[in-house]
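Final report, Chapter 2: Outcomes

The project's central promise was a pipeline that accepts a single protein chain and returns its three-dimensional structure in a standardized token representation, suitable for archiving and comparison. That pipeline is now operational. To close this chapter, we reproduce one record exactly as it appears in the project archive, with the input sequence first and the structure output second.
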Amino acid sequence: MQGKIIVVTSGKGGVGKTTATSSIGAALALEGNRVAIVDMDIGLRNLDVVMGLENRIVFNIVDVVQDRCKVEQAAIRDRRIENLFLIPASQSDNKDVLTTAGVERVAKELRSRFDYIIMDSPAGIERGFENSVVAADEALVICTPDVSAVRDADRVIGLLYARSLNPKLIVNRLEPARVMRGEMLSHEDVLEVLSIDLVGLVPMDEKVLISSNTGTPLVLQNDSKAGAAFRQIARRLNGEDVTIEMPVYKTSMWQKISKTFGLK
């Protein structure tokens, strides 16, 4: 059976995409899958730091695509979670160094070795995005509940549809108390604009910063609400029927977002 390639993307930076990628990959591995997380953000790699693997890098995805090493030489095994691997980005190359044909060739090999391949796409819609989505079977869009993130996510979703991908949405850093005070969009506001399937809601959680700074997998922290949310997302991606707990709000910022997007 061939592995599944999932691209994780966003319209803008700073929405928690790298944390989401590492957490979903780790959670899928905890479910018993063999998982490779591939950092496609050439020149700006961060996944190795978030996963605590920065001191073990020898080769990277550019080396694999350009036949300077084999997949197994570039894939770094995580010591805490069995069957979890990272293929890091290059820090010294630019985004134009990879070709879609080269990425497709390597993706075919990755499918034969792993159950899930999670591609961490650079934010935005440039060359790095094209290389990240070229071989994808599924797409996850990470969006925070603010107007600028929603607007940029809307543009990326259109590009994913144009590539015959049906994206699913993760609303990250949700704070129900701020929604009720009218300071933040609700997940319903976000869904109303983006109109794609919701796969998970991730609450704001101070444990995320601690996890990133220490290189400790968020999904291994029992007291992390965000970690628990990512584990549920992984179970849904793995085919389980896991209910999404929906917050109930008393108010929202719908007036502002509807004006921004020209909605009625």
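Archive annotation: The radius of gyration is 18 Å.
This record, like all others produced under the grant, will remain available to the consortium after the project formally closes.
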